[in-house]
Amino acid sequence: MKREIIKTQDGSTTIHLLEWEESYHSKHGAIQEAYHVFIKSGFDLFEEKPLSVIEIGFGTGLNAFITFIEAKKNNKSVEYTGVEAYPVLLEEALSMNYVTELHASDNQSVFETMHQISWNETHQLSSNFKLTKRQQFFQEINDCNQFDLIYFDAFGFRVQPELWSLEIFQKMYVALKPGGVLVTYACRSSIKNAMLESGFQVEKLPGAPGKREMLRARKI
pTM above 0.85? Predict the structure, then answer.
């Protein structure tokens, strides 16, 4: 599938899939969407203990990198798992302008390392941040009571509705610890209903720029 790197409205880059007319991040702003959906609405809810995060759709590594920056800033210990069935090419990842746009030149080597380390192994990227990248289809996830927080960042329902199914959200529910949270940029009624049927408590929140609403789900 033909791919191109494009600049989003906040100046940060993303990968655009021409055949699908789908991008890895919002065209309204990749970085601002990541902060709004995953940090402000998810990561910032947790203050205590080591935090265990799983990202559904590791992609360009933007969410992982921002989480690393925020963990470092707040002295928060994080164990981060990124699941990706089709990893982006190394040269694609390293051509993203996130380090510059985030004014994070002191963490340039960390962003590069995130994409250079081996898959399916745990790596200690700093004293308070561990990263495990799993090359895995989402349907193969079988974790149980493992994570505090899920970043659900799959491609949109329009192009991959099977990734937003009851089956997937049942797996997400099982993967979370009691009290755990799932956040996603999406807010389609069928997605909300699949979450509810899986056992989640679900709330609508204001969406990132360009999107009216997003969803946050809790395992009670």
Answer: yes
